[in-house]
Amino acid sequence: MARITKRCVEKAEPASKDYFIWDEEMHGFGLRVYASGQLSFVVQYRTVGRTRRMSIGKYPATTADEARKAARQLLAAVDRGEDPSGLRQDARNAPSVKELCKRYLLEHVEKRNSARTAKEFNRIVERHIKPALGTLKVEKISRQDIARLHASMSATPRQANHTLSVLSKMFSLAELWGLRPDNTNPCRLIARYPETMRERFLSNEELARLGRTLIEGENQGTIPKERAAAIRLLALTGCRLSEILELTWAEVDLEHCLLHLSQSKTGPRLVVLGTPAKNLLKSLVQKEDTPQVLHNADTGQPISVAMMENIWRRVRNHAELSDVRLHDLRHTVGTFAGQTGANAFLVRDKLGHKTLAMTGRYVSRDVAPLRSLSDQVERRIADALEGTERGKVLPFNSV
Q1: Which of the two ends of the chain, N or C, has the fewest CB atoms closer than 10 A to its terminal CB?
Q2: What is the pLDDT of residues 169-186, one digit of tens each?
Q3: 350-357 contacts: CB < 8 A, separation 24 or more?
Q4: Are 238 and 270 part of one and the same domain?
């Protein structure tokens, strides 16, 4: 035994196998001399009948004085009944944010969210969360870590806020799963960025131009009839694009003018149809072995979002609606519904907003008011699409 000092360390020579030099003043503090010549400061102690040994640091990165100071603190912790080595091992085995992401997606998102929402959450996790925080331990994530990531996405405020929402849910679950102490969600108090809501809806005259473009494109064969039908259904019903493209005949009840959507952004929901939408659906041909209402006429394959976005770019440019998105057809239905004087609950039922998940059970149990609203809105839009306010028809050129 010797007092472990700089001189003692420098004099230590490797042997045929590893050995220890123990400090004569501080019981449990030592120097490990490896056969390779590497030197490492250690602390050794007993706890619950077991001998524990842990490394303090390697020489010369850690000096003898620094190691002695660290050893004194560790051994004092042992005297208080703590187990520093066990704590270090627990910290090493603690789950990372990457592992939390995996569990969140498997045990929460896949079981509770629609396929479309799950896909978006997966994208947020892979693109934003894992690259920034994936290697960090769940228990070590601080509010500053979250704020830094949120701030780095300030150029896209909506995406930044969505990412913050996903993180907030993940860390709430981390508390539930015992991975963090209660009430330590690091997303708390981080202010979300203001989001500019895009309020764009079509006027009667714009709907007329859209309707003329669809008719002309169908007549010329430049717009496939099933894609024109998809656009008309979006404009009449106010459904989301994914709801229309994924619609199956099994979900269509023409007798009662209903769509029983099993998959939507907000989960299963009921869509009440007006007469124009019902008649449009009746006109569509069912293809054997093809469950989707809308499909490629030649192949029977479903229509993809990319296909719709492609045809929509051509349609809107020809109709002089270059700033209009397909989703704005949904805004148009909502606006027209509001203009009928219908109450907010009916309008939200019409659009299937999630905010009615709780209140919907207390209002509008009878679909009759919704059917009346659907008829009013759809007739107004259908009249415009069919050219009540007619103008000059321009040839639709495929581009």
Answers
A1: C
A2: 999 999 999 999 999 999
A3: 350/238, 350/272, 350/374, 350/377, 351/238, 352/239, 352/261, 352/264, 352/266, 352/269, 352/271, 353/266, 354/265, 354/266, 357/266, 357/267
A4: yes
